[in-house]
Write a structure and sequence with these properties.
40% helix; transmembrane helix; alpha+beta; EC 3.1.3.16; five-stranded antiparallel β-sheet; membrane; 12 strands; Phosphatase 2c, domain 1
Length: 283
C-alpha cells in the first residue's frame, strides 16, 4: 500500500541569506492546484511579492469553480497582479518588487497552466524532458537565436543578461502570459516539475536521471535539491521544485480501498453469525 501522495514540493536557500521563492499545493476534491512564484526585489520585497502572489492567486482560482480551467487560472493571475499593484502603491520602498509565476491545474488525466516569467514547467516522459511553458526571459530569446544559427550556444549560456525578465507579475500590465486554454493530456508515468530558475543548475540529463531513478515524488524532490547543493555553484540562487507523478496511487485512494474491504469483511462476518443463529434456532 502506498501512503504517499502523487505530489510534493520543497526548497533550499542556496548561497542566499534569504528566501524569495514561495509555493503552494491545494487540493479541491478531485482537482489539484500546483503554484510556484520566484520573487524579485531583494530580501523583503521579493518574499512579499511571491507570498502575496501565491495567496491572492489561490483565492482568485478558488472562485467561480464552474468556470473553465483557463478562466480560473486567468482570474488567479489577475488578482495576484492587482494585489501587488496595491501593495506597491502603499509603500515607495516596495517599488520594483515582483515575481514570476507558474501554476498548473490538474484534473483527471489533463492539465492546464498559466505562467509569467522564466520559472519552468517541465514534463519528463519516457526518459525525455520537454519544457511545456514559455520562457519570458532573454534566455528564451537567446535559445531561438541559437536554433537559427545567429548565436552560439556558449555565448547564450555565458551572457550575463540571460536571466533578464521580459515579463513579470509586478502590478503593471503583464507583457507576456502563457495561458494554456485547451487540455494537455497526461500519460501514466508522466512526471511534471515546476521549479524556480535555481534548479537550472542541473542539466537536463541530471534531471532525467534523478526523475527516472525514483517514482516517489518526495524522494525525487530530495534528490534534485541535494544535487543542486552538491554542485556548490558560486552564488547559488534559491531553488524550489514541485514534482507530480501521474498515475501514481495516492494515500487517500489506498486508505479508501482498505476501508471498503474492511466493511465487506465485517458484513460477511455478520451474515455468517446470523445464519448460525438461525440454524441453531431451527435445530
Amino acid at each position: 500500500m502506498n501512503d504517499e501522495p502523487p505530489f510534493y514540493g520543497d526548497q533550499i536557500q542556496g548561497d542566499r541569506n534569504y528566501q524569495e521563492d514561495s509555493f503552494s499545493i491545494k487540493v479541491f476534491g478531485n482537482e489539484t492546484l500546483l503554484l510556484l512564484c520566484d520573487g524579485m526585489g531583494g530580501h523583503v520585497a521579493g518574499k512579499q511579492a511571491s507570498s502575496l502572489a501565491v495567496e491572492e492567486f489561490v483565492q482568485g482560482f478558488s472562485q467561480h469553480i464552474d468556470s473553465p480551467s483557463y478562466k480560473r487560472l486567468e482570474t488567479g493571475l489577475t488578482m495576484a497582479n492587482s494585489a501587488i499593484q496595491q501593495k506597491v502603491s502603499q509603500s515607495a520602498e516596495l517599488k520594483g518588487m515582483g515575481t514570476t509565476l507558474v501554476a498548473v491545474h490538474l484534473s483527471g488525466d489533463t492539465i492546464y497552466w498559466v505562467s509569467v516569467g522564466d520559472s519552468p514547467l517541465w514534463l519528463v516522459r519516457e526518459n525525455k524532458i520537454q519544457r511545456l511553458n514559455a520562457d519570458h526571459s532573454l534566455a528564451g530569446v537567446f535559445k531561438k537565436l541559437v536554433e537559427q544559427g545567429q548565436m552560439t550556444a556558449q555565448d547564450a549560456a555565458n551572457d550575463p543578461k540571460r536571466h533578464a525578465l521580459l515579463s513579470s507579475v509586478s502590478g503593471d500590465e503583464i507583457k507576456h502570459v502563457d495561458l494554456r486554454e485547451s487540455a494537455f493530456e497526461l500519460l501514466k508515468g508522466d512526471c511534471l516539475l515546476l521549479a524556480s530558475d535555481g534548479l537550472e543548475t542541473l542539466s537536463d540529463e541530471d534531471i532525467i536521471r534523478l526523475v527516472a531513478g525514483n517514482d516517489k515524488p518526495k524522494k525525487t524532490v530530495a534528490l534534485l535539491l541535494d544535487a543542486v547543493t552538491t554542485y556548490q555553484k558560486p552564488q547559488q540562487d534559491n531553488a524550489t521544485v514541485m514534482v507530480y507523478r501521474h498515475g501514481m496511487p495516492s494515500g487517500k485512494t489506498s486508505k479508501f480501498s482498505f476501508f471498503t474491504s474492511s466493511v465487506s469483511m465485517l458484513l460477511s462476518m455478520f451474515l455468517v453469525a446470523v445464519l448460525l443463529i438461525l440454524g441453531a434456532w431451527q435445530w
